[in-house]
Please model this.
Amino acid sequence: MINIDLIAATSENTVVTEYTPIKRRSESYQSEADLENEFIHMLCEQGYEYLPVHKEAELEANLRLQLEKLNDITFSDEEWKRF
Model:
């Protein structure tokens, strides 16, 4: 079976390439932390940006920023409190 990997997509065109997946099977126990780190590494390889968040306030600030970007809007502090 041929696997196709999406490289780029726009409203005008799409670029794909053929790839062969790397088959790996773990023969030992993997801790939850190791699994999480491997997952983060895989996402970073796919172009995602790792954002170290250690506090609830940081998570909420990032949520606000991403929603504002997505909707092309700026929430006032009062609107954000209601939201």
